[in-house]
Please model this.
Amino acid sequence: QIGFEFGATTGRPRRTGWLDLVSLKHATMINGINNLVITKLDVLSGIPTLKIATKYKTEDGKIIDYFTSSTTKLYKYEPIYEELEGWTEDITKVRSYDELPQNAKKYIEFIENYLGINVYLVSVGPERSQNIIRKELF
Model:
């Protein structure tokens, strides 16, 4: 509800969950993505512990850090999460990366390090004025 994650036409709640970096790394690789935009960072404010999937546990107990395109296999995989400390500050008025809480910056930098790409822009609210340009594209 905080992120207004409802279908525009149907009004149905959207499925939300923790960030899955294994699948995101695969998506960035196959699509040639080398910069990322993080939206709605503000909705994570107030969550004590943030989870990020960095590996999967397969049906047979094997731990893997790569994506499978087999939906039948993926359905049976269990995500393995790393946990990061959250932040309590309201970040909707933040206008520069340096103003973000330390734990928000750690979250962003964790994503960058795992994916091996830059986070170009971070949004801290729905308005255009709430976009923070983190790194120049070139």
In short: The chain has a mean pLDDT of 88. The chain is about 20% helix and 25% strand. The beta strands are 19-20, 35-38, 49-57, 63-64, 78-85, 118-123, 131-133. The two ends are 36 Å apart (CA to CA).
